[in-house]
Amino acid sequence: MFFLFFTALVLPSVIPQFNYFQINVQRDSTCSSIIKQNLSKLEPGDIAFKHPDIFPDFFPTIIDHCLIFIKYDNKTGLYVFIEASMVDSKVQYKYETESELIGPFYGPFAKVRHANETQKQNAIDFAKKQLGKSFQGEWINKNYNPEDTKNDPYANEWYCSELLWAAYYNCNHPFPEKKPVDGYVYGEGIDLDRNGWKKNLLNYSIVAPREILYNPLKIQLYYLSNSSNIHSKLYGKINVLNGELIPLLWAHQFYMNYRLNYANAS
Fold it and tell me: For residue 150, what are the contacts with CB-CB under 8 A and spacing of at least 6?
């Protein structure tokens, strides 16, 4: 495990084909300038990014998970999300309290640029259609069509960022509870992956949480007004890997495995 973690952090700095650039979210007007908002402004269809569930103060710029916000439940006082969970190995609802959302593990949040209310609802309805489906722990490829299992055996399974990406990639089409006679239509929506369909060194096209987070043309970041200052300070200037994502995926795998073991132990 330590070797994978060490490799994920060190390898990008010693291989010349990996290039770095910097995002300054406070200076670039075309980038996702931070918008101070109250928790009540969290809207259905927004994206929540999470840090690892362990030692957040040591690695606050690591994002290992993302969820789509569904609604606020007035009866329970809980915020309802949908996630593809590695811990529970399925797509499921996740219920969070206000204190959890403004705690050290959440942030930033994001709105999808230019998405209208219909597109947001379509994305939510697509995510709802995936509830109960298996978590894709192999992180192999990405697919927006869950019916494409003939060409892709993992098409009907999801990892967290793939589910969010697919939800908005399909947002131009409705997904009613009852399947239409002609079936559902997929694709031609908003592509949240900054890499598009670019393939990595293993010839896979994978969308990691970071590829959504660092796509300022498609999302607009914001922080909750009373969230931890550590996020806004450290996200002012971030070194971002621009190129193949194998080292970052190793780091992602390491933290997800660590989190799974941590959850089982507790």
Answer: none
Query: Is the distance from CB of 43 to CB of 116 less than 8 angstroms?
Result: no
Q: Which residue has the tokens 């971002």?
A: 240
Give the 3-state DSSP-derived string for the chain, with helices as H, strands as E and coil as C: CHHHHHHHHHHHHHCCCCEEEEECCCCCCCCCCCEEECHHHCCCCCEEEECCCCCCCCCCCCCCEEEEEEEEECCCCEEEEEEEECCCCEEEEEEECHHHHCCCCEEEEEEECCCCHHHHHHHHHHHHHCCCCEECCCCCCCCCCCCCCCCCCCCCCECHHHHHHHHHHCCCCCCCCCCCCCCCCCCCCCCCCCCCCCCCCCCCCCCCHHHHHCCCCCEEEEEECCCCHHHHHHCCCEEEEECCCHHHHHHHHHHHHHHHHHHHHC
User: How far is the C-alpha of 82 from the C-alpha of 254, rounded, in Å?
Assistant: 23
For tokens 């007035």, the residue is: 74
| Integer Cα distance of 12 and 68 in angstroms | 30
CA distance 12 to 246: 9
Instruction: Tell which CATH classification among 2.120.10.70, 1.25.40.340, 2.40.50.140, 3.90.1720.10 matches the domain 2-245.
Output: 3.90.1720.10
Cβ neighbors of 195 (< 8 A, separation 6 or more) are 205, 207, 211, 245
Res 262: pLDDT:
45
Instruction: Specify the pTM.
Output: 0.73
pLDDT tens column, 105-142: 888 999 999 999 999 999 999 999 999 999 999 888 89
